[in-house]
Specification:
Elements lengths: L93 H32 L2 H9 L3 H16 L2 H25 L4 H28 L6 H30 L1 H20 L13 H16 L2 H10 L1 H5 L1 H4 L3 H8 L4 H24 L6 H19 L5 H29 L5 H8 L6 H15 L1 H22 L8
Length: 486
């Protein structure tokens, strides 16, 4: 990383994508609620000079921003795409394509796991409470040890870390599949399996988010995170339907074997990522606590990030556990359908995710990110209310699609907003702190299970939609900072 002077630079990376880490920013416009010292969102950054031939001293001057940059030289050719097409813009970058592939494979395994676990637990226990609890329990490790995952991401080689965790999950799934095929599975085994998989997610999510942020330019972050969500959404569309068919034909064992294979393919994709080595602070036990505190203090100093994290607690606690966790109950008790119908209901959520992420990716760099985040939560609340009133599975499909659009737009846009502000050395720790919201999923699953057991699944969904609406209104009345953030 070069020092800052007053020269304008020309940078060439052998026709390769360039990644930039913006640090030490002063005198930035506060329109978005940023404090001095925080990196601006992509639309606030001064336009970078074009990439031209020749390599000179890598320093950069803008009117308002002093930036330090790191030029990455990943191998491989850059794919040329039409300039007016923003939808798949991030796919021009080789390393991003491999990061996206890890999302595609691992998400396919995750959604296969969701339908297998939901069907298996409900088939064994016939308990709405235990079913919703099992489907949300993998988020509990995030609540317990989440910051440790972020610290590891900021200290170790992210590519190797990603590959290692995928290999761990593939092994755990293969062992559990063996128990299922042998017919010796009890509810306790399911809970242990889910918890072990959740330990992996503590590291996977911050590692993958950090790699997304360092494989594309800053102005492409919204597109990159939207496409990353697309990989998650495509498999959410296909995997549950395939899993439902496999459950009907061969039971849960073959579906789990396919999940393990998909996780193995994610290992291969992670190892194909090629990034230049970066200097990272050495991981020492005696400094671990101070580094964790350092990350927390950074988040505290950034009001926009704090606002996003505060609002991000709502969907994982009151939307995901009810829409995902209660779906087996709705399928069996309300719509009176089997595993195939359950797979189609889950795939409807995937269809909405695909639709939402494609539209968001096509917009390129969204300017009013704060407003979009708030409106997406409002859409989720309204659709949950509508879903609680339907009794026909055919009416449920479009409602679930719309609900999923809201949730995917929320998470893609909020991730892009946070990552556009955070400097690279804090990415892992800040991402792990923002992931605390997912650690609340077991709490939401517990609430969903208790309400569904006592009041029925439709009433539980109705109550959850009201809570989401109430929390959103309270958030807006308390602060308009996020609404005004660009």
């Amino acid at each position: 990383m070069s020092s800052i002077d007053n020269n304008r630079n020309q940078i060439q990376a052998d026709n390769q994508p360039m990644t930039s880490s913006y640090n030490a920013v002063q005198n930035t416009s506060l329109d978005a609620g940023l404090t001095p010292g925080a990196a601006p969102a992509p639309d606030q950054r001064a336009e970078m000079p074009p990439i031209t031939s020749g390599i000179v001293d890598s320093s950069l001057e803008t009117d308002h921003t002093v930036a330090q940059i790191t030029v990455a030289r990943p191998r491989g050719r850059r794919i040329r795409m039409p300039e007016n097409l923003h939808t798949f813009e991030s796919f021009k970058y080789r390393n991003y394509r491999y990061v996206w592939a890890t999302t595609l494979f691992s998400s396919g395994g995750f959604w296969m796991q969701q339908i297998v676990i939901g069907w298996l637990m409900y088939d064994i226990t016939r308990s709405a409470f235990l079913t919703t609890l099992a489907m949300g329990l993998d988020a509990l490790p995030i609540l317990l040890i989440g910051p440790i995952g972020g610290l590891l991401v900021d200290s170790l080689d992210r590519r190797k870390l990603l590959a290692g965790i995928y290999a761990y999950q593939a092994f755990v799934t293969a062992v559990f599949a063996t128990f299922v095929i042998l017919g010796s599975v009890e509810p306790l085994h399911i809970f242990i399996y889910i918890m072990m998989m959740g330990v992996g997610w503590v590291i996977l999510d911050p590692a993958r988010a950090s790699l997304v942020s360092t494989t594309v330019p800053g102005e492409t972050l919204v597109n990159a995170f939207a496409l990353n969500s697309l990989g998650f959404s495509v498999t959410r569309l296909a995997a549950p339907a395939i899993g439902g068919g496999l459950l009907a034909l061969g039971g849960p064992g073959p579906a789990l074997v396919i999940e393990a294979i998909l996780q193995g393919l994610a290992v291969v994709a992670a190892l194909a990522i090629q990034l230049p080595s970066a200097e990272r602070a050495e991981l020492k036990l005696k400094t671990a606590v101070s580094r964790l505190v350092e990350g927390a203090l950074y988040v505290k100093s950034q009001p926009v990030i704090l606002s996003v994290i505060a609002l991000s607690f709502v969907p994982p606690m009151m939307s995901f556990p009810f829409l995902n966790g209660l779906m087996p109950v709705f399928a069996a008790e309300i719509f009176e359908t089997g595993s195939v119908g359950l797979g189609l209901l889950m795939s409807s959520l995937g269809a909405g995710s695909v639709l939402g992420t494609l539209v968001l990716a096509s917009f390129g760099n969204v300017r009013r990110k704060g407003q979009l985040i708030i409106l997406s939560v409002a859409l989720t609340s309204v659709t949950m209310l509508a879903f609680s009133q339907v009794t026909s599975i055919y009416m449920a499909f479009p409602i679930l699609i719309a609900s999923s659009v809201g949730m995917m737009v929320f998470f893609s846009t909020s991730s892009a907003l946070v990552q556009s502000i955070v400097p690279d050395e804090f990415r892992g720790r800040v991402t792990s702190i923002s992931m605390f919201s997912f650690g609340m999923m077991p709490v939401g699953s517990l609430a969903a299970g208790v309400l569904a057991q006592r009041l029925g699944a439709p009433t539980a969904m109705l109550v959850a939609s009201g809570v989401v609406a109430f929390l959103l209104v309270a958030f807006i009345l308390n602060s308009r900072l996020l609404w005004n953030t660009k």
